[in-house]
Specification:
Layout: H1 2-31, E1 33-36, H2 38-55, H3 59-87, E2 90-93, E3 104-106, H4 108-117
Parallel strand pairs: 1-2, 1-3
């Protein structure tokens, strides 16, 4: 009788540990949602470019501003593709979410830094 109880206890402990690991590795990341406000990122960059174009008087300054705009246009799609892999979550537009939950993470600041840092 005693070996059967030990076997049952070990089986229950192993099953509990495996269920906990499954929860940590599969369930919890699937419940996490990252939101990004791409419009805000565009508006900030647009303001930067407009300021650079109006402040710069020469063709060289305008050329730098246009090169910066081209670089931003190339970096943004790449950064958006990398976000889900880096956060391990589903990433959606902020406007698609009706309300926030404890599992919702705002990645807009991270996206801004990622686009600026490259």
């Amino acid at each position: 009788m005693r070996p059967a109880l030990i076997n049952a206890a070990m089986s229950a402990a192993l099953a509990s540990a495996l269920l906990f690991a499954y929860h940590l590795v599969v369930i919890r990341p699937a419940q996490r949602i990252g939101v990004v406000d791409v419009g805000e990122v565009y508006r900030l960059k647009e303001a930067e470019f407009a300021q650079a174009l109006t402040k710069g008087a020469g063709d060289e300054d305008r050329g730098r501003a246009l090169a910066s705009a081209r670089l931003f246009a190339q970096r943004l799609p790449v950064a958006l593709e990398e976000l889900p892999r880096e956060c391990g979550c589903l990433v959606v537009l902020k406007t698609a979410i009706a309300g926030s939950t404890p599992n919702t993470v705002d990645l807009t600041g991270y996206l801004k830094a990622k686009v600026d840092a490259k």
